[in-house]
Amino acid sequence: MITFRESTFVSSRSRTSYCFGIALLMIANAAIAQDVDFNRDVRPILSDKCFACHGPDASSREAELRLDQREDAILDRDGHAAVVAGKPDASELIARVSSSDESDRMPPPEAGKALSAKEVSTLKRWIEQGAKWQDHWAYLPPNRPDVPDVKKAVGSPIDAFIRQQQIDAGVSMNQKADRRTLIRRLSFDITGLPPTPEDVDAFQSDTSADAYEKLVDRLLQSPRYGERMTMYWLDLVRYADTLGFHGDQVRSVSPYRDYVIDAFNSNKPFDEFTIEQLAGDLLTNPTLSQKVASTYNRINRASAEGGVQPKEYLAKYSADRVRTAGSVWLGSTFGCAECHDHKFDPFTTKDFYSFAAFFADIKEQGIVGGANHLEKMPVPTPEQKNRQAELTSQIAKVETEYNKSTPELTSAFEQWKVDAKAASERWVALVPETAKSTNGATLTIEEEGVVAVSGKNPDKDTYKLEFTTNLTAIGAVRLDVLSHDSLPAKGPGRAGNGNFVVQSIDVELDGSKLAWATANATHNQGGFTAENIAKDNKTGWAILPEIGKDHHLVLEAKEAMTFATGKETPHRFTVSIIQNHGTFHTLGRFRISIAEQSSNGKDSVIPTIEVAKILELPEGEISKEQNSLLQKAFREQTPLLVETRDQLTQLRKEKQQLDASVVTTLVTVAQKSREMRVLPRGDWMSNAGDVVTPAVPAFLSNDHLELQPDRLGLANWLTAPENPLVARTFVNRLWMLLNGYGLCRSVDDLGSQGEWPTHLELLDWLAVEFVESDWNVKQIIKLIVMSETYQQSSNVTEGSFSKDPYNTLFARQTRQRLDAEMIRDNALAISGLLVDKVGGVSAKPYQPSGYWAQLNFPKRTYKHDTGENQYRRGLYTHWQRTFLHPSLLAFDAPAREECTARRERSNTPLQALVLLNDPTYVESARVLAADVCSQSEQNFESRLEYAFRRCLARKPNAEETKVLRQLYDEEFERFSNDEAAITQFLSTGLAPVNEKQNKAEVAAWTGVTRVLLNLHETITRY
Whole-model pTM? Predict the structure, then answer.
């Protein structure tokens, strides 16, 4: 099992830095507090150095000693105890960790976990002071602590907690940031986008006392706020547009992303937000939105690879849900208990599988065949929903007109039955002697001459059938295409949508072919009509949208083919059905009939096989149901209803097209829970483990809370005020988003291996405030950003850095590079290209050709969007797990294979190359340059000032002006002498070029704006 530290900090350098940070933090905290605190000072040492062998995991426990439990640690063992309160010299723990004998020293030298002298000293002082034990801080219900009464009056409880520790450490809070920095910081933190120059000017000129608060309120009400918060939430829940395993096929789940955006924008209480995602489908009369929310349970990685073991992958999906829910809501490394009891925290393997049992009712398959998930639900937009209602009403109205009875229709019906019976007697159904496919499909001849196609499904195919007949001539051929449950969408075709395309039907006798005069069919798809076969124009006949039904095609010969006299009977001839449309549009089930004479009327009555059989019955033996079938067939053919029938067909076609255009999402549907067992060491093939039922981790259970044993019960338990972890976890992450680091810096692990919070009382105060505010997310954000702590300058003085290099006291704001999506959004916003539409399907921005070359099952070619989707926010970028968009990847966006609570930030030359060369950034620079050149001010300095205000909301200094003027002059000279270079350079991207502008000037300014978009200051939030 991979431990938290190994899975999160992938390099030894990172691990070293992390441990060094912990050590410095412990030193700082020990200096602040004279008394040793078990949770703060001792537990981290024991957890890091001792719990692996003397902790919660019974399978790896040595000497039957647990140091995570006081009762075990102080237990007398033949005159010895690991810990003797008040007597470090009598404590076996001290003797072992300080022994010079390698055979006695603990941890053993080979573990590489030797305690430092300071750590040994801490343990000694702790025992001297009585060896007081505490349950882990994160597992205790948070209580609202008293707000410190600091010397300097403060307006926010947050500042009181922060300043108290600063005073104790002899550190002062930094000065307040200037207004330009504040509005940029707030805009990026709350909306993920930069402020406009006009916004900056307005804020800087607003002298009212509540100017800053008004700005905060305006940004929190912006629809961009929901998008920014959703970007982080999608990292947590590992949202992506693809399956993630093997072929990594696309799936449709974007309505879930839009649900999250709306939830944050509408300030949905976090408890409701939690309940709807985990159990929206289990609520009483769930709304469409609540069903969409339940998509959360379905966005785990899945496999469509036919060779996988379904049971194995159901176990993978189950474990994934436990890991994710444990990380998202509990801030815990619950996943470490999949194969054994957690080595550092009280999670047991039984806890893991009991928690997994909450999700055992989800209807799903181990193999997602063709990426077609169970329970895909349409999610229409309001406009689509309204149009669907309008069409449904119109269809019902026309159907009433179509189905009405009149004397004229009654009379026509009686005549139709006579004509239909006569027409049916004209046809002779044939049973093929042989039926073969030229491209490998299997043709099976069934009763009454029906031919069923199975096996290989070629892209194109020709069916060759041999017949014998006692008739003397062939004047017409009838092809009945038959629906069947074994075919896609019930057929009659083998294409995925049930359709087919027949290009031609050749009837051949002794080298001669019948020539067709007319063709008629029960239904013709637009452009793919029966007449195409008669005219032999190769387009063919098809039947969309009338799939899933029987149809027939009648071909009338120009001249009947008469069999030669004198030859033995029966006569032999062949029929070839040519299907060259491609994309598997071939017939799946059909029958051939012939008539001796060619009919003259194009509108001849053509009864189906079923209708023909009914017409053979005596009038008095035709049942009510059979008469209804005759009425239906009559109304489908009578000229009296042609206008009404065409209108109904058109309305139904529009409704079908509209329904097909509606985006779907995977929803959770509950079924009878499958059996859940403890899997020994995670072995999915084993049935040896105990059967378990839904239950929360035993050490976190509350006896007085009645726990409903389903996902709704789990969600209610998570959001119960008594739950110690959920509120702490979420407010800690909000603090990280707004201040760079969490109050507990290990935002993905509040357990024993996590860091001791720098401000535990503040964390608990915020957690209680969050719950008591009815889980009001915007209120907590506003509370944080209104504090003086948040509004500090990020400038670092030598004194503050030397006293607090890691800013554990929050005596300054944090400078941090923008996240990957925000860097792109920033460039698009600055240039004016950004499309501010909220929600919708995922977008495909420019991407290097060939990047998807290794994607298989099926092979895919990436095609970037050419409309407004090209300029959507990064939040909407198509998220291909195995081949994440390279621009996002360069700036450390996660693949979202697992929950990501904190993105790491790297600084590489590749990032500069992306900003200089990615078409999105070149195009943004080009469009910005064209805007700069369109300004009325002609001199370089004025235009540069305009560009700086757009990019950085400030004026350039003298040195910047000098350097960029030199660059502009060089670029202008180069482009003025190279028309081809100008054309190539300015052709980057889809945005049109203004042919009226001086192209050399625009190209030279593009060189300048590329630099501005690449500046560290442009992509950094201060």
Answer: 0.84
